[in-house]
Design goal:
The protein is of the alpha/beta class. It has 6 helices and 7 strands, in the order H-H-E-E-E-H-E-H-E-H-E-H-E. The strands form 2 sheets. A 5-stranded mixed beta sheet has the order 4-3-5-6-7.
Length: about 180
């Protein structure tokens, strides 16, 4: 309602600029060819940054999680954006997610650690389990965020301090049955 009322008060030129911006957003923005992050170039700024640690891949659900982690200024590795999590109730399986490129990246011996930074929900844990079973290999450390993040919450709603500490205090991923 507020957006509609604000647009109603704007001049025709402002509305045209706004519409052009939305069209440019849709036509000039895509998924990074390496990690799946949002980018206006074929490869995002994180994946081409030589100052990043390419031996550590942080697996997240969507780009909002990348933004949340980046806002902590504590993580210097790279990301892999799944585009969702496994949720049989919603009809989302592994084939609907950006998972295969992660498997390919994980086979590179230069990758030393994969961090599962998915929301601590049943679906997030299911996705972690699936990824762990498919990714594990000799010499690859698989960690998950410490559980300073409330069970059932989403990363994008977690404050920067808690998220930063959870990332710094990540733990080795274990199957608990």
């Amino acid at each position: 309602m507020r957006l509609a009322l604000d647009l109603f008060r704007r001049s025709g030129d402002e509305i045209n600029d706004f519409v052009k911006s939305i069209i440019e957003l849709k036509t000039q923005t895509n998924a990074c060819s390496v990690c799946g992050n949002l980018s206006d170039t074929p490869t995002c700024s994180i994946c081409i940054n030589p100052g990043r640690d390419f031996s550590i891949i942080c697996v997240v659900e969507d780009i909002r999680d990348v933004m949340a982690i980046e806002s902590t200024s504590t993580f210097k590795g790279v990301y892999h954006v799944l585009g969702g999590i496994i949720s049989p109730m919603d009809g989302i399986g592994p084939n609907e997610l950006n998972i295969e490129p992660l498997f390919e990246r994980s086979r590179n011996n230069a990758v030393q650690e994969i961090i599962f930074a998915l929301s601590p929900t049943m679906e997030g844990d299911t996705t972690n389990f699936y990824l762990f079973k498919r990714i594990q290999r000799e010499g690859l450390l698989i960690t998950t965020l410490s559980r300073g993040i409330s069970l059932g919450s989403e990363l994008q709603h977690t404050d920067e301090v808690t998220l930063g500490r959870s990332l710094e205090q990540r733990q080795v991923f274990r199957l608990n049955f």
